[in-house]
Amino acid sequence: MRGKSRTLAVVATLALAGAALGAQSVAGKPLPEATMLNAVDGKLLHMDANDTWWFELTGEVKSETFRLAEGTRFLLLPSAILEQLIADVNDRFVPTYRLTARVTRYQGANFLLATYFLPLSKFKSDKPEPAAARRQTAGDGLPVDPALAVPPEILEKLRTGRPVRGPLRKPVDSREGTPADVSLGRMLANRVGLIEVEEVEAWKRGSVEASDQRVYACTQPRYCFTPYALGWSVSSVQYELLPCAVLEQAQQLQRSSMETVRFNVAGLVTQFKGRQYLLLQRAAPVYNYGNFGR
């Protein structure tokens, strides 16, 4: 009997150890590129004086392939939706939101590109309704005119109601059946150019307007895509590249090459405080007479 109890104790200990190891591996592994977080609740955090904003989960998020613990934080990438979030957060009592976002992965870390948000807190300017008014409204009877479907006080509130803040749901294309990313920006396809690193201080020196602006993630080097074709500059627009797996692969290819590599890229263009950003979805090297051997 004593030997049987010892055996059960050893089995229970091994089971608990295996469960703990599995939880640790699931929680510590970065999410794959292009994973979607749909309608997750959290709060917006501003950690420093720069335009770096974080989203912290206020509850556990589970799916068939991953599990995120409460308190997990993600750095929000600059986008038009983030700009709307920043404008909205100062008007709220609590910076809590329901967020839908696309996950990117770069150098073992995850980032979020927000696609939609829903505020979960009231405006600071909203005044609570007096208790007497609530009791009077609750005690009112039906409208005198039975043909009127909506009471007059409700119609009055609808006419004087506060306009809805924040982005609306994304429209659905009836032909495809999927929402269009019209709120994020536009697509850039089949553009040939160079991927180059540009330090923040150099960018400040080259831009008069940037001297008075806070810089997003100013402690990190900036990687930019410049359209370029065999010595001919085809565009004066420069896109700052958002961290993602495609950018990391392109950088690995550049480090392994002795010559300058041009890329044919495609991706999503978004804007944040007047600056163009590009989330790469493809970056294929362009081959010519000088690099056929690679």
Report on this model:
With 294 residues, this protein is of the alpha+beta class. Among the domains are: 27-119, OB fold (Dihydrolipoamide Acetyltransferase, E2P), CATH 2.40.50; 186-285, Beta Barrel (OB fold (Dihydrolipoamide Acetyltransferase, E2P)), CATH 2.40.50. The protein is 24% helix and 31% strand. The protein is built from six helices and twelve strands. The strands form three sheets. A five-stranded mixed barrel has the order 1-2-5-7-6. The longest helix is centred in the N-terminal third of the chain and has 27 residues, at 2-28. The chain is elongated, with a radius of gyration of 26 Å.
Compact overview of the structure:
It is built from 6 helices and 12 strands. The protein has 294 residues and is an alpha+beta fold.
CATH class of the domain at 186-285: Mainly Beta
User: Main sheet: which strands, in order across?
Assistant: 1-2-5-7-6
Radius of gyration: 26 Å
Q: Can you tell me the CATH topology of the domain at 186-285?
A: OB fold (Dihydrolipoamide Acetyltransferase, E2P)
Number of strand elements: 12
Alpha plus pi helix count: 6
Share of β-strand residues:
25-35%
**Could you report the average pLDDT, rounded to the nearest whole number?**
75
How is the biggest beta sheet arranged? 5 strands, mixed, barrel
